[in-house]
Amino acid sequence: MESREIPEEFLAGYAEILLSSGATGRRLTRDELADRRAQGERAAEAGYGLRGLVRAHLTAARELPGPMAGAAFGHLLGVVEQAVDAFAEGYERAQGQAIRQEEAARREFIDDLLYGRSDLGRLAERAARFGLRLSQAHAVAVAQGPEPYGDGYPVARGIETAVLARFGNRQILLTTKDGRLICVAPGDQPEILAYFAKQAHAATDGGRVAIGRAHPGAGGVVHSYEEALGALDLAERMDLEGPVLRAADLLVYPVLTRDREAMADLVESVLGPLRQARGGAGPMIDTLTAYFDTGCVATEAARRLSLSVRALTYRLERIHTLAGVDPTDPAHRYTLQTAAIGARLLGWPDGDGRERSGVKAP
Questions:
Q1: What is the pLDDT of residues 183-198, one digit of tens each?
Q2: Which of 103, 268, 271, 275 is 20 to 30 A distant from 192 in Cα terms?
Q3: How many Cα atoms occupy the beta-carbon half-sphere of 267 within 13 Å?
Q4: How many C-beta atoms lie closer than 10 Å to residue 172's C-beta?
């Protein structure tokens, strides 16, 4: 950029206004300043670097004809300063406009990419401009923190800097969407998203990252993004532990809710009688969840629930009495565990599971 020779057109009239000002001792007129700003805008739009342009202006001032050498030196410097400042103002204004247009184009592209809008062929062409080759498979990671992420926020900027410093350009796209930080990376380079997840978790207090599976094509980015969002939603519904969630590890959950009517019937049929328990069905569902999550180890389940083992055993017996299925019997365990998982996915017993929106499939 800086090695390009600066065309004379961007210095047109510059020497003349210096000579005129030096001869009369006047400052630059409004029209002369406007002309320098316009020249600065044109130079920026043509892609010339500001350092080279300023250097060309200073050289032109130094090479003024001999009579100017005797002019008041301080006045000449003041005029040069006026001219160069106006030129730089126009240059920066054009650059700012170009940056705003680029940001708008990037945001529009990201919206189309993540929501599957726009013609896929056209989307692939636009993706090349932002360093993505949509003919390849890509995977998406979504970071969600205690506070929303925004473009230019220090935390988001720090994570982006760390990822790009580690992996370079490598067809990585980092952006924000709906208060979340998003990383799109080639599907055959899982180390990029793993590092992104590590940085995002370390940079926030209580943040969580979900990683979708790799899928080919422009539609693959949408699919992976939706999987990651679904994993975050699932983690909240199911109280899943761990700062990093992988959609590939959670495929069983959307399978269970693919037929929501059947799942709702199972939950109501198996767990409906638990509404008769003291305190309702909620504490009993929590008991089943803790019991199954700990591998049916009563002492550990009791510890998680802050209960005595005796109190936990009483609850399990009460469930057996009310529901007619025994949590400690392997023959009944699968049905109860499936119903307990379904209850959490469907928001039961607060809702019956038939009117709530579906769980997004990882």
A1: 989 999 999 999 999 9
A2: 103
A3: 27
A4: 22
Structure tokens at 161: 């800097």
Residue type, 172: I
Cβ atoms of residues 290 and 304 within 8 Å: yes
Residues with Cβ within 8 Å of residue 304, at least 6 apart in sequence:
290, 293, 294
Helices 30-45 and 50-62, axial angle in degrees (round to 10): 130
Instruction: Say what the pLDDT of residue 307 is.
Output: 92
Of 58-67, 249-258, 329-338, give the lowest mean pLDDT range: 58-67
Sorted by sequence, the CB contacts under 8 Å of residue 246 that are 6+ apart come out as 210, 211, 231
Give me the DSSP letters along 197-211: HHHHHHHSSS-EEEE
Q: Cα 136 to chain center, whole Å?
A: 20
Q: What is the pTM of this model?
A: 0.61
Q: What tens digit of pLDDT does each residue of 135-167 get?
A: 789 999 999 988 888 766 788 888 888 898 888
Q: Residue 104: is it exposed, middle or buried by C-beta count within 10 angstroms (0-12/13-18/19+)?
A: exposed
CA distance 222 to 178: 15
